[in-house]
Amino acid sequence: MISRLHRIHSPLGILALAVCSLLLLSGCSGGPAGGSRAGHAEREPAVIGTDGSAESRVVAAIYRELLTAAGQKVRTADTAYASPTHTAQAVVDGEISVAPAYESSMLRALPGGQTMPGNMEATLSMALPPGIVALPAAAAQRGLVVAVTEATADRYGLRGLDDLGAAKDRLTLGGPASGDPGAPSAAAVKKAYGVTLTPAGTSRTADVLVLRSSDPALARDGLDVLGDPESVVPPEHVFPLISAPAVDATGRAALARVNAPLTTGQLAKLAASVDKGEAPGKAARTWLRAQGLLR
Description:
Oligomer: single chain
InterPro entries: ABC_Gly_betaine_transp_sub-bd (IPR007210)
Protein name: Glycine betaine ABC transporter substrate-binding protein
Order of helices and strands: HHHEHEHEHHEEHEHEEHEEHHH
Shape: elongated
Structural class: alpha/beta
Strand order of the largest sheet: 7-6-8-5-9
């Protein structure tokens, strides 16, 4: 933005503005009638980037299908990025136009974004550089969950982390995702809920398990996900991160249609299909048609 303003105020910039003004006053647009519509049609395709995960690839495919149906030209970046953070940085750097991003991961990557906000959407909007927009998030999360076995939930009457205080026994906290960024520690749980848990590292036999929301163990082992009213586990809802000029109002409205039906459970099923070998585009089209979002 600074360099653009500098060019306008330079002698050449002023001369260019004067020439454009004369052309407009004389009724000459420098192109055919309806040039603005032609310019829209000739806009460069929006480039969608993704990391290598199944979740990112299928969400990117959903975005592509929705934008294409809305009349926008779209193509997928030739190579995948190393992580959601790298993909988001590519949008900021102008390498790509659109990417699936995740709330807390995005916030941690931004300067001064380490503190969890009360309003994630507003905080992201203020933290992002000019021209980069975080569109509203879907219901789906790619982040972490805290879960217990059905037997543990029934034994102690657990529905949320706030119920852990009713357990008379000292419970352990661990699980395969307990070392992930943003994973709740025993100290964080104690601070939020006044409950003392014994750290158990990455053990899958811990009483209270920290898992990724796409972990097949959740369904396979019939685990109960505990509620987290104090938000000890940071939210990781997926949302479209865009370069503002690349996606018009029609495209943004199209992307917003997926927010309610794309739940964590639906995302996990889509990712599982891609992991088994289904092409992300095919999985996306099948799901969108089933939701009535694509013909």
